[in-house]
Every structure is written in structure tokens, then in C-alpha cells.
Amino acid sequence: MEINIAVAKRDKYLSQGSGDTLEIIERPTGGISLVMADGKMQNRDSKKISNKVAHHVINLIGEGKLDGAAVRSAAGMLFHEFSGQAQASLSVLSCDCDSETLIITQVSRTPVVIFHDNEVRLSTAEHSLIGMEAHLEPTIAEFEIEPGTSIIMFTEGIMLAGHNQEFLPDLRTNIQALFEEQAPTSQEIADFLLIQAVGLDKGEPENDMCVAVLQILPDSAESTRYMTVRLPLT
Questions:
Q1: Strands 2-10 and 209-217
Q2: I need a labelling partner for 20 at 20 to 30 A (CA). Which of 8, 37, 93, 149 fits?
Q3: Buried b / exposed e across 46-68, counting CB within 10 Å, b at 16+?
Q4: Is residue 136's pLDDT more than 70?
Q5: pLDDT greater than 60 at residue 59
Q6: Which residues pair with 58 in a beta bridge?
Q7: pLDDT tens readout for residues 158-203
Q8: How far, in whole angstroms, is CA 80 from its chain's centroid?
Q9: What is the CA radius of gyration of the chain?
Q10: How far, in Å, are 24, 70, 147 from residue 136 at the CA level?
């Protein structure tokens, strides 16, 4: 099998910087983890907070800590360092070759979308933000790695796109329709959701937007690993 990952991001309109952070790390025992954080400080988007949270989790995963333990540690760190004045949504998606499982760990207002067996379902978290209390238990879902599985993470800017125009899109229905029309690549899925969200905000995003897609593809004869990054400089 092969792991295929794509990311698409867009900053809030006229923003000086995004409050969203997406980090990727290879796991010590094989596989890969994606960490998505959406930081807030005094109700404003904060790259400082999302960076701090994402890097804390990435460092612990790199040391061999379990995803749930890494998220709990990040929650405690953020609460104690900022006395409850900083918050973040946090989602971790791992393809762990050691356990041969996909692991979703969430403390987030936004759901994670899972497409498998031609069906779209949503994984939601019991807690919405870290940083508001010292101890919390993230929501964890774990299932076998199987080809044909696509998992989509996104930040609030995607989920709430169009909200100021009193229209909240049905993401589940739209994603199901996308898969019924074609067999989209991870990049096509990420681009579809980002373009749709920007359009709903009339081309001027009301919030930072980030989409990350992980697909499990059938056997590949290719043994070389690739990673491509495109980052516009302004």
C-alpha cells in the first residue's frame, strides 16, 4: 500500500498571518503523523499558539509517545503557560505501521471526515479546545489500515465558510458527491474543499483555512519516497 498526503491552505482575507499550523512527521516505528492546530489568543487568530501546540505534539511523537499522551501533554502545557487565556483546536492523524492502524486524536470543534467502503462518516470530539483546563481526555478513534480509505482534516475556516452569509454547507453531502463522481486524488479533495470554502466567502475568506487529506492507496511498485511543497512568497 501507499500513503498519499495533500494539504491546501489559505489565509484570512487581509490577514498578516495565519493562525493555522499543519506539521508532518515520520513516526519512529514507521508511518507518518499529521498535526493540525488552530490557535486563538484573546479571541484572535494566533500563529504563536498553533505553532507552540503543534510543535509540542510533534516533538513528543518523535520521541515515541502515543498520540493521546502527546495531546494531553499539549493541553496541560498550554493551560499552565497561558493561565487559560490561550486556546487551540487540535487534531492528530496518524498512519502507524507498527500497529497497522489509522489513529485519529481530536480536541477540536471541527469533525474529521472518513471515507471508506463508499461511505462518508464524521468523527467528532467531545472537547472543543485545549488550553481551557489542565486535564482533558481527547477523543480517539482507531481502525485498520485499508486501501481505499481517505481521511480529511480541516480547520474552522472550512467548516464555517459562508456562515456570515447565513449558509453553512453540508460538507458530508458534498464530499460524498465528489467521490461518487470520480476517484479523486488527495490533492483534488483538498483543492475542492478549499475552493468551495473560498467561494462561499465570496473570495474573501472570513477565517484562516487549512485542509489536509491522507489516502491509503493500493500496492505501489515505487519504493522511492517523495514530498512536494508549494509555498507562495508575498
A1: antiparallel
A2: 149
A3: bbebbbbbbebbbebbeeebebb
A4: yes
A5: yes
A6: none
A7: 988 887 665 555 788 888 899 988 889 999 999 999 999 999 999 9
A8: 24
A9: 17
A10: 24, 12, 33
H/E element, 18: none
In tens, the pLDDT along 67-106 reads 999 999 999 999 999 998 999 999 999 999 999 999 999 9
Which CATH number is correct for 2-217, 3.60.40.10, 3.30.1340.30, 3.40.50.2000, 3.40.50.300?
Answer: 3.60.40.10
Residue 23 pLDDT exceeds 90:
yes
- Are residues 20 and 155 in contact, defined by beta-carbon separation less than 8 angstroms? yes
- Whose cell is 485498520? That residue is 144
pTM: 0.92
| CA-based nearest residue to 133, from 77, 65, 67, 53 | 77
CB 34, CB 92: distance < 8 Å: yes
